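User: C-alpha cells for this complex, please. No commentary.
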Amino acid sequence: MTELLSIVIAKLNYWACIALMMIGLYAMIAKKNLVKKIIGMNILQTAVILFFISIGAKKDATLPIIVHGHAAESHAARAAEYINPLPHVLMLTAIVVAVATLGVALALVIKIYQQYQTLEEDEILTRLQNE
Amino acid sequence: MKTLAIFIVLLFGGLLIYCTLDFPPWGDPLAPASMHVSPRYIEQTMEETSVPNIVTAVLADYRGYDTMFEAVVIFTAAVACFFLLRVFGRIESESRMYRHIPSGITLRISKDAEPLRESREFERIDLTWVPYGVVVKTSCRIIVPFCQLFALYVIAHGHHSPGGGFQGGVILGASVILFAISNNMRLSFTRISEKLAVLLCGLGVLIYAGTGALSIFLGSNYLDYGALSRLFGVDPVTARSLGILMVEIGVGITVMAVIITLYYNLASAGRHDEGL
Amino acid sequence: MIWQIEFVVLLIVIICGIGAITVKDLLGAAILFGAYSFMMCLLWAIMGAVDVAFTEASVGAGVSTVLFVAAVFRTSRRTKD
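Assistant:
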C-alpha cells in the first residue's frame, strides 16, 4: 500500500497533465458549441506544453540564465546546475502558434455566425441540410 | 455522443497513464532528457555567443530556422484572418449627426443634402457612437506609454533576462489594443492604420530573412551570424550576439503587427468602423 | 519547487479548466479561460521556465482573453450546453 502511495506521489505531476489533456479532448469532442470546442483546443495545447516543461525540470537547479560577472574570471557553467532549456525553446514556438490558430478559429466562428445566426453544431447541421 | 466521448477519453487516459509508469522520477538530474543534448548547449553558449540567456540564444541562433518559419506562420494567420473577415464599403445610414464643439449643439443632416466640410468646430458622431467614460480614458492614457516603454525594455534585454522578441512584441500589441479599447477604435485607426499594420507584418519577416541573406552576401552560410563580423568590425562571438538582437527586433515587429491586425479584424467583424 | 504551492496551483488549474467548459455563459467561459491561463503561467514559473511563463502571461492571459471576448461580443453570448 505504501509503495502504491509512493508511486502515486512520484507520478502525480504527469497524471495531472494527462487529466488536463483529457479535459481538453472531451471538450473538443462532446461539446456542441463552437466556442467551447475552441476553448477545449486551447486547454489541450497548454496541457501538452505543461507536460513538456515538466520534463525539463531538475531538482536543486536554477533558471537557464548563466550567472556571469563583469570580472575577467569566469567559471564554466556546469550542466547539473541549470535546468534543461531545450523544451522551453520549443514551447515558446508552440505558444505563439497556439495564439495564431486561436485568431483564425475565432475568425471562422464569426463568419459562421454571420451566415447561420447560431453557434450550436446540431442547429448548423439542420440548417445546412435544409438549404 | 457524450458516452462515446467519455469512452474515448477514458481509453486514451488509461493508455497514457500506463505509459507514465515507465517515466523517470520527476526532477531527476539523471533523466535521459537532460543527459545527452542539453549539457552541450548549457556549457558552450556563453563562449560561443556571449548571450547569458540560453533560451534566447538557442531560439534565435542555434534554431534560427524554426523561429523564422514561426514568424511566417503568424504572418499567414494574420493574412488568413484578413481574407476571412474583411468586408469593404460602409453601411449608409439615413442621416448624419454632427456636433458643434464650442456650443454643444447637435445637428442632424439627412443623407440627400450635401455633407459638411471638414472643420475644427464640427465633429461627426454617429448613431452607433458610444460615449466613452473619462475615468477609463484618462487612466489608460497614463498606462499606455509605460507599457510601450516596458515592451521596448523587454526586447532590448532579451539577452540578459527573461524576455526577447516575442514577449516584447506581444506587449507592444497589447498596448495598442488597450488604446483602442479605451478610446474610440476609429482614433486607433488614425494612429496605426490597417495598411501600416499589414506592412509591418511583412517588414518583420523581411528583417529576419534579410539578416540571413546578409550572411550569404558576406560569404558564409544562411543565418550564420558569425559572418556579420566583417560588416561590424567585431569578433565573431560579439557578431553573433548582435545578429541575435537584429532578428529579435524583426520578430518583435512582426508579432506586434499580427496582434494588432487580429484585434482589428475580430473586434469589428471585418467592417473596421466600431470596436468593443 | 515547493510541493505544497505546486499542488494548490495544480488543483486551481484543473478546477478552472473544468469550469471553463461547463458554464453556460460564454463570457464567463472566456474569463475563466483567462484565469486558467494565468494559473498555468504561475505553474511554469514555479518549475523554472521563466521565458515560457512570461510569454504565456502576456499571450494567454492578455491577448487570448481579449480575442475571446471580442468574438463573443460579435456572436451570441448564450449557449445551450
